[in-house]
Amino acid sequence: MLGSILESTAADMGWTRELDQARLVTEWDEFVGSPTAEHTTVVGFKDGILQIQCDSTAWATELRRLRAEMLTRVLEEYPDTGIRDLRFLAPGAPSWRHGPRSVQGRGPRDTYG
Fold first, then answer.
1. Of 39, 48, 46, 50, whose CA–CA distance to 91 is shortest?
2. Which residues pair with 44 in a beta bridge?
3. Which residues lie closer than 8 Å to 31 by C-beta, 6 or more apart?
């Protein structure tokens, strides 16, 4: 009874997308399995794209290969998330744009030539 009232209220308030997205994030370990979950983290949702950070380029490449299968499962198991695609992010190169002597933008480039 209480569950149906909460579902009805969530639908009336337009919260179904956010609730389904939150459910996917909390159930990520179960959805992808423990081995994959150890190497991935859900970063967020942007413009209908679920962004997943991988801890290595190898994991990102392998999961990109399985993207269609995973997207199909997401759409079946979490239909109200509004997800249209998955993006697997590989770890980036280290950023040199930090520290006390860094400047915003491209910085002073006229000293090289």
1. 39
2. 51
3. 24, 73, 74, 77
Is 40 buried (19+), middle (13-18) or exposed (0-12) by CB count in 10 A? buried
Cα 35 off chain centre by? 17
- Indicate the DSSP class of residue 104: S
Which pTM value belongs to this model? 0.71
DSSP-H helix ranges across 1-113 = 2-13, 16-26, 28-32, 34-37, 57-65, 67-77
Chain segment 45-103, per-residue pLDDT in tens: 989 999 999 999 999 999 999 999 999 999 999 988 899 999 999 987 566 666 676 66
CB atoms within 10 A of CB 98: 8
Q: Could you give the CA distance from residue 6 to residue 12 in angstroms, rounded to a whole number?
A: 10
DSSP SS3 for 89: strand
In the beta sheet, which residues pair with residue 54? 40
Listing from the earlier edge strand, what are the strands of the sheet with 49-54?
40-46, 49-54, 85-89
